[in-house]
Amino acid sequence: MERPLVFPSLLAADFARLADEAARVEGAADWLHFDVMDYAFVPNLTMGMPVLESLLKATSIPIDCHLMIEDPDRWAPSYAEAGAGSVTFHAEASRAPLRTARTIRAAGARPGLALNPATPIEPYVDLLPAFDLVLVMTIEPGFGGQAFLDETLPKIRRVREAIGDRAIWLQVDGGVTEDTIVRAAQAGADVFVAGSSVFGAADPAVAIEGLRAAAMTATAGAAGAAGPALTTRG
Ligand code: DX5
Ligand code: ZN
Fold it and tell me: Which atom of ligand 1 is the closest one to the Cα of 66?
């Protein structure tokens, strides 16, 4: 695969010092992952538009918004208009995923489709051209610090197959460590969100490079064995 991308999740950062936390990963993080929760789609509440607007002014790192909210068809476009680099919403919560994806793309951001562990990719395969990112959740969303669910690995492989030659990112989120990133990379993921394993480390930038190296080694060593996971994207 191309160079694996590592997106540290700010959910595991100090919310009172977000600009400082972003600065700690500058140069190592590819993008910043920004988790939006609404006490409805998930049993937790985090950040929203006002915080995103402030953070965009405080960092030059692109921001990847992960909306764990009800009614994303109503709220997602505003995150793209504010300047997020990508806006990912959940398939389970959207009633008009194609329209929402097109609106996000028209606003200049990458639209992303997120799937909870129990949600299959198959009903969404025909929609993939409307998206630039598929997020396979490797935990039940809502909280950081949970263990990676190996049950999601077969779906990661099927999403990789469905993506084929398209330049769509296959992102995983939840329980990503130097151990689990190996299995996710071998299954075909190429964008890795990591919260606790980055901001819980003494040096978050070093932790990011460790994750990236583990993902690269995982796929380089398996040449010819992991099938679609190793297909170079066009
Ligand atoms: C949880 C969030 C994740 C979270 C992952 O629902 O979507 O982005 O930060 O945290 P870790 O990496 O600790 O599992
Ligand atoms: Zn997330």
Answer: 7
